[in-house]
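Private note to self, pasted from the team thread so I don't lose it. Backbone tokens:
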């Protein structure tokens, strides 16, 4: 567990953030290897099958992504309060939900897959191959979703180096078995699926090993504590808020791709390339948001308002500095990166037309990413949900207003405005969060009674 007597230092922030950045770097690498290995078969159909199969499964698993954020906020507060039993109970509750969710996906796989292909139609040949891929991969669902919970708990404990090792094991194992099963044994698309299943089970196993101290306490058998209805209700409410917030955010990105398709394949391809720049921004900013979740949650659990304010300020400084570096990088080398991604002359020209928006995006993203981390650490998820709803409404308002006038430029401007709106609305709510540290005197997980401020 974390020693709360530690001073908040820049070194401590980097101790949390740097391993997360390195772990995130491995994520796109794995996708490239999967595609490259299947590409050696010399056929387009298997590539499309792996692509659509992975998208459908990722969408199903992503529903339970709230376990990562919700677990971090609650666990960080329990650590800050010095409540070791509750810290352990939070992980067990999250793992229980993960197991139930993963098993539900396995049991309901047939109707879920039908729904997935209805939303993302493909040719009969691609769908047949994708189904064989998904029928294998789905068996690791409980393990992958459990890894979400484990990751959130380790973030709260500032053990992000363990998270890096988990990612290295998962992705290294996946790549190794990809090469063995596909290129050596010739198992094709099924080989890619088996490699992923082995990797996800291995990653979960290592994560459970890192959390083994929780299970030797015997707390897992204390049903009264684990099934405390008040705490379960609070845990559920927070995670539902996070899920709604995430669905709203996803609606922005999905509609962005959908609206971009109106302007033809060239602009659609350009938008897709430039969104990779945004993905890089998210991977880096997320690391500092993780640090904010941890430090703010611990400060709130310990009821230290000054520490919470200092944590928010220091991590924001790092996030802003990172945003400046990314903006300069995209400004200086954006054209080179575009040329490295595509060789199509028309797509290169189109991507350069909209490059300015991805240059500005890191700076505009600082506030929403950092404040997301702060509000998750404080488990003020109702505010996150409501401010996301406002930001989504603003986005669609500007899309409908600007697209008829400025076409694809209007789409990018609306996306920038939505990020700015999310940062501004959460900043408006931040003072109340800070004031609540002193007023919030009831045990973590319980709802405030009448006359008490939440």
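Design output:
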């Amino acid at each position: 567990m974390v020693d709360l007597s530690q001073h908040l230092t820049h070194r401590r922030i980097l101790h949390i953030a740097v391993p997360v950045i390195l772990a995130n770097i491995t994520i796109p690498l794995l996708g490239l290897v999967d595609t490259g290995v299947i590409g050696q078969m010399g056929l387009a159909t298997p590539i499309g099958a792996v692509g659509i199969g992975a998208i459908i499964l990722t969408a199903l698993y992503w529903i339970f992504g709230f376990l990562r954020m919700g677990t971090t906020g609650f666990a960080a507060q329990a650590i800050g309060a010095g409540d070791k039993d509750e810290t352990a109970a939070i992980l067990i509750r999250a793992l229980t939900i993960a197991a139930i969710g993963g098993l539900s996906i396995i049991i309901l796989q047939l109707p879920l897959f039908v729904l997935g292909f209805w939303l993302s139609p493909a040719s009969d040949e691609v769908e047949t191959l994708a189904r064989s891929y998904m029928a294998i991969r789905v068996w690791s669902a409980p393990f992958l979703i459990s890894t979400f919970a484990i990751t959130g708990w380790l973030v709260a404990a500032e053990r992000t180096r363990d998270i890096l090792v988990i990612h290295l094991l998962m992705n290294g194992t996946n790549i190794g078995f990809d090469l063995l099963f596909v290129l050596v044994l010739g198992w094709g698309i099924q080989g890619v699926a088996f490699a992923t299943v082995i990797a996800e089970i291995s990653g979960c196993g290592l994560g459970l090993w890192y959390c083994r101290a929780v299970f030797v306490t015997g707390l897992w058998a204390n049903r009264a504590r684990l099934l405390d209805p008040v705490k379960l209700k609070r845990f559920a409410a927070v995670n539902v808020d996070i899920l709604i917030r995430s669905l709203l955010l996803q609606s922005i990105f999905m509609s962005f791709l959908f609206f971009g398709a109106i302007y033809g394949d060239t602009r659609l391809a350009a938008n897709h390339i430039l969104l990779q720049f945004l993905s890089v921004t998210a991977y880096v900013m997320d690391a500092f948001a993780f640090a904010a979740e941890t430090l703010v949650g611990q400060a709130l659990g310990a009821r230290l308002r000054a520490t919470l304010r200092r944590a928010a300020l220091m991590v924001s400084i790092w996030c802003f500095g990172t945003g400046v570096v990314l903006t300069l990088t995209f400004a200086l080398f954006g054209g080179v990166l575009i040329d490295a991604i595509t060789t199509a002359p028309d797509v290169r020209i189109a991507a350069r037309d909209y490059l300015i928006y991805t240059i500005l995006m890191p700076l505009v993203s600082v506030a929403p990413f950092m404040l997301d981390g702060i509000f998750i650490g404080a488990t003020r998820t109702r505010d996150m949900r409501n401010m996301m709803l406002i930001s989504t409404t603003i986005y669609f308002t500007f899309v409908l207003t600007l697209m008829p006038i400025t076409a694809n430029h209007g789409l990018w401007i609306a996306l920038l405005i939505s990020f700015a709106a999310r940062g501004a609305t959460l900043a408006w709510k931040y003072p109340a969060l800070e004031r609540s540290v002193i007023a919030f005197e009831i045990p973590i997980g319980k709802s405030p009674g009448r006359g008490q401020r939440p």
